[in-house]
């Protein structure tokens, strides 16, 4: 059976991207240039480009054409409870945490519900920007029950809050309930993350508990979609 022209073009360009012949974060040739190169119609080229976009090789950006994506993705364990410091250390990449906000607040109705608190309790709000290889790829918005986690400083938040909780406070972080959704970027995401034209973010919402089932933390981790592969291990029960 003869391969469709657009599939052959898709396979050739995808292989060139994998080999580094088209450099990550640079533009592909225009539709017109590709049509001339492959001696075909622009409609055929569009089909090939759409398939490249669907399979994570390029991002089509209005006014800029097709941008080659970095195929190196970081594995993010869905079922585990891993701090950013632990994750980044395993990757062996240069990393940095920037504390954007750190304050004690009275919980609004939303946080009262998420953390099982009353309006008389206090919450430590921490907003951090996570960088790997100089790119701002995660926006972490953390809310801690301050009764359980007192004394959070900027220095602790730049290093590892989980390390502080376990080693300094002597608490045992036990389990979390997670929800993963895809959303359009907020204005805050656009300002604080290196989104590079992406039109969505992957949001991981966590409710984190201690070993006595006390609710410690509610967090929203907002990830740039091209940089992470969310992985898990599943076993069928019989």
UniProtKB/TrEMBL annotation:
<dbReference type="GO" id="GO:0045892">
    <property type="term" value="P:negative regulation of DNA-templated transcription"/>
</dbReference>
<keyword id="KW-0805">Transcription regulation</keyword>
<keyword id="KW-0238">DNA-binding</keyword>
<keyword id="KW-0678">Repressor</keyword>
<dbReference type="Pfam" id="PF00392">
    <property type="entry name" value="GntR"/>
</dbReference>
<dbReference type="InterPro" id="IPR050679">
    <property type="entry name" value="Bact_HTH_transcr_reg"/>
</dbReference>
<keyword id="KW-0804">Transcription</keyword>
<dbReference type="InterPro" id="IPR000524">
    <property type="entry name" value="Tscrpt_reg_HTH_GntR"/>
</dbReference>
<dbReference type="GO" id="GO:0003700">
    <property type="term" value="F:DNA-binding transcription factor activity"/>
</dbReference>
<protein>
    <recommendedName>
        <fullName>Trehalose operon repressor</fullName>
    </recommendedName>
</protein>
<dbReference type="InterPro" id="IPR036390">
    <property type="entry name" value="WH_DNA-bd_sf"/>
</dbReference>
<dbReference type="InterPro" id="IPR011663">
    <property type="entry name" value="UTRA"/>
</dbReference>
<feature type="domain" description="HTH gntR-type">
    <location>
        <begin position="3"/>
        <end position="71"/>
    </location>
</feature>
<dbReference type="GO" id="GO:0003677">
    <property type="term" value="F:DNA binding"/>
</dbReference>
<dbReference type="InterPro" id="IPR012770">
    <property type="entry name" value="TreR"/>
</dbReference>
<dbReference type="Pfam" id="PF07702">
    <property type="entry name" value="UTRA"/>
</dbReference>
<dbReference type="InterPro" id="IPR028978">
    <property type="entry name" value="Chorismate_lyase_/UTRA_dom_sf"/>
</dbReference>
<dbReference type="InterPro" id="IPR036388">
    <property type="entry name" value="WH-like_DNA-bd_sf"/>
</dbReference>
């Amino acid at each position: 059976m003869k391969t469709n022209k657009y599939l052959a073009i898709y396979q050739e360009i995808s292989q060139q991207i994998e080999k580094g012949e088209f450099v990550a974060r640079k533009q592909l040739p225009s539709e017109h240039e590709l049509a001339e190169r492959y001696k075909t119609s622009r409609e055929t080229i569009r089909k090939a480009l759409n398939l490249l976009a669907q399979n994570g090789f390029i991002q089509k950006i209005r006014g800029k054409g097709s941008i080659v994506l970095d195929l190196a993705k970081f594995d993010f364990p869905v079922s585990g409870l891993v701090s950013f410091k632990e994750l980044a250390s395993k990757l062996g990449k240069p990393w940095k945490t920037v504390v954007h906000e750190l304050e004690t607040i009275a919980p609004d109705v939303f946080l009262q519900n998420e953390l099982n608190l009353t309006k008389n309790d206090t919450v430590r709000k921490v907003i951090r920007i996570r960088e790997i290889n100089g790119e701002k790829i995660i926006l972490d918005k953390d809310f801690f029950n301050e009764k359980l986690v007192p004394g959070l400083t900027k220095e602790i938040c730049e290093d590892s809050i989980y390390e502080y909780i376990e080693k300094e406070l002597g608490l045992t972080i036990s389990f979390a309930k997670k929800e993963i959704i895809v959303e359009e970027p907020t204005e805050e995401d656009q300002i604080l993350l290196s989104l590079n034209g992406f039109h969505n973010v992957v949001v991981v919402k966590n409710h984190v508990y201690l070993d006595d089932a006390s609710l410690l933390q509610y967090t929203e981790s907002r990830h740039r979609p091209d940089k992470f592969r969310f992985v898990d291990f599943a076993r069928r029960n019989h």
